[in-house]
Amino acid sequence: MDATTELLIRKAKREDLPAIVALFAADQIGGHGDTTDPAAFGDYVAAFEKIEASSLQTLFVAVLAGEIVGTFQTALHTTLSGRGSSSLIVEAVQTREDMRGRGIGERMMRHAIAEARDRGAKKVRLTSNAVRTDAHRFYERLGFVRSHFGFLMPLK
Known about the structure:
Elements: E1 8-11, H1 17-25, H2 41-53, E2 57-64, E3 67-78, H3 81-84, E4 86-95, H4 104-118, E5 123-126, H5 133-141
């Protein structure tokens, strides 16, 4: 029996926010400025409420033994190109550092892929920080291919 047999992947709830924020704040590579400082918590609540109100976005958590051990977010995006095809975008994939290598990330991604199929998407898209070489190997092992260059413009 593998360690993820009892893993539950479900839609995130408001009360999950402290654990989700802690996952992001512990990420040394992301550089998104995430913090567990209580003064910043209102920003996370506001973002959660926007995600929760959207029919196109979903925030998920992975729960093992009653603890949140991972999270990811999906967004359904439809364009006119490709004859109006939709893709499911996966963002903010995090597995708690002490739980990595146990199949949790794979289960989260397989859940996202199943959601994409259920919602009629033609493909699943994601971006990954250029320095996350371990993550790149992980995504390629799951069948993702490098296909585009990404660009980013921070706005002040």
